[in-house]
Write a structure and sequence with these properties.
single chain; alpha+beta; Serine Threonine Protein Phosphatase 5, Tetratricopeptide repeat; eight-stranded antiparallel beta sheet; four-stranded antiparallel beta sheet; binds 2-oxoglutaric acid
């Protein structure tokens, strides 16, 4: 009961066993329902009598349909029976799916980590690295990655190798030895930059990221690419507007982040002279020939009455940072038509521009577009920055 108690603070569980549900129900539905519905009911029946595999299958189905409250009920029931995968899934759902319940999600993730789950250990590393109230947060975070590597996460192993600057796990070196070699101060050190335009303020940072970091970010984003959306503040989410953008993208949430990305985010915040909490979720954009992001502004229009709540909640989107993650494609620049200027970085080069002027008003000269590559594929990391702390939607 403990887990469901955390979720509902004593509210009735919608998934409590129904004493009337049983063989009669089964017989009634068998005669009249198509096969998949019969299977659905069978799954639910098995879930209700305590079969953890069915509870998890049902939870996953509800999750894929966006019914997170129901998904949480079923994950919680399977987790109460000791299923570690269900516990991990419940914690992830609470952390990244709506309505977000951050603190219960963190608590359950820690429980899953203490029970030795490799993925939970890694997610705890990400949580620790962002916890500014935690003393020695980067040491704690690295230790979680080390434990995740030891528990069998190949991603944590690859991450430690990259952080330690080694390609192969050296013979007779433990993951602890490797973790001790990592210098997180260097990974988070501010990057050099130069001003390209004073007004609107635009700066470039050649070599902002190493080739290995760029390859890492592409590899992390690639499996999760989806059709790119345009932000819709009324829904607190995205909508498809193909004439505006028809490329693909991936948005990193806490479950899909890692210490390399968090270090990159800290460097971006330093470059922009803003706190890390101002950063929206990092996106990686992917374009092939024919795909583009049409001319647009990144600021939130304060004159639009329906956007005022959004600005009050999250602050103005004051700056945009773009990091080119690969080379070898033709055209595909970031175009600023009003300024008559185009930026095309080599792998690891970045541009940062303010979307508002010195008095905080939207700067119309920042109109910009992601042009399509004529040949090859274009990968860009895009980071929008808010005026103050960016609160996740929940
Ligand atoms: O992909 C590009 O070159 C531009 C991306 C962009 O406009 C944005 O992220 O706001």
């Amino acid at each position: 009961m403990i887990l469901r108690h955390i979720l509902h603070s004593g509210k009735r569980s919608g998934a409590s066993p129904d004493p009337l549900f049983g063989w009669f129900g089964m017989l009634a539905c068998c005669t009249s329902r198509p096969a998949d519905m019969t299977q659905d009911m069978d799954l639910e029946r098995r879930a209700k009598i305590g079969d953890t595999a069915s509870q998890i299958a049902l939870a996953r189905r509800h999750e894929s349909e966006g019914q997170n409250e129901l998904a949480r009920e079923w994950y919680a029931r399977a987790a109460e029976q000791g299923d570690l995968y269900a516990l991990l899934s419940l914690a992830k759902n609470l952390l990244v799916r709506s309505p977000i319940k951050a603190q219960p999600g963190v608590n359950l993730m820690r429980t899953a980590a203490e029970r030795g789950d490799a993925e939970a250990l890694h997610i705890c590393a990400v949580i620790a690295s962002q916890d500014v109230d935690l003393p020695s947060r980067w040491e704690v975070a690295l230790d979680y990655v080390r434990r995740s590597a030891e528990a069998g996460s190949s991603m944590a192993c690859r991450q430690l190798l990259l952080l330690a600057g080694t390609e192969h796990a050296p013979q007779q070196t433990s993951w602890s030895d490797l973790a001790r070699r990592v210098d997180m101060v260097r990974w988070r050190a501010p990057a050099p930059s130069r001003i390209v335009f004073e007004s609107p303020r635009i700066g470039c940072s050649e070599g902002f990221a190493s080739g290995a970091e760029c390859d890492w970010l592409i590899a992390r984003a690639k499996p999760h690419l989806k059709a790119a959306e345009v932000y819709d503040p009324e829904r607190q989410g995205g909508i498809l507007v193909e004439h505006m953008r028809n490329n693909r993208d991936m948005s990193f949430d806490i479950v899909h982040s890692d210490l390399i990305l968090i270090a990159v985010r800290e460097r971006i915040a330093k470059l922009a002279l803003l706190g890390s909490a101002s950063l929206e979720p990092t996106m990686v954009l992917h374009y092939t020939p024919g795909q583009r992001f049409a001319p647009h502004f990144d600021f939130v229009d304060p004159a639009a009455p329906h956007l005022q709540g959004e600005i009050a909640r999250n602050g103005q989107r004051v700056a945009t940072f773009l990091l080119y993650l690969n080379g070898g494609f033709e055209s595909g620049e970031t175009d600023f038509p009003t300024l008559g200027w185009r930026f095309k970085g080599g792998r690891g080069d970045a541009v940062l521009f303010r979307n508002v002027d010195d008095s905080g008003r939207p700067d119309l000269r920042t109109l910009h577009a992601g042009l399509e590559p004529n040949r090859g594929e274009k990968w860009v990391l895009s980071q929008w920055l808010r005026e103050h702390v960016h609160a996740p939607a929940n």
